[in-house]
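Hey L., structure's done. Input below.
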Amino acid sequence: MPLEEFFKMMATALNLPTEKNLSLDTRLSDIWDSLGQIMVLSMLSDNFKVTLEMNELISVKTIKDILDILKSRNITIVDDK
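Output:
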């Protein structure tokens, strides 16, 4: 999956405006609250069949951290630029 598509999925899950620019370094604390966490967990489950463990959820700080977890589960998101 292309990285830009993943960013769009994140923005949709978090109900962010389309002009919100997400990057690998985007701090999750800046873009989600408890409902946002639930929406992202749901998006990951629906699209990738991935369930984050509680320790993983607590440890993620950036979008890159989520991608690293996906990568550890053999799901590759590629930067197509």
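The two ends are 13 Å apart (CA to CA). The first helix runs from residue 3 to 13.

-- N.
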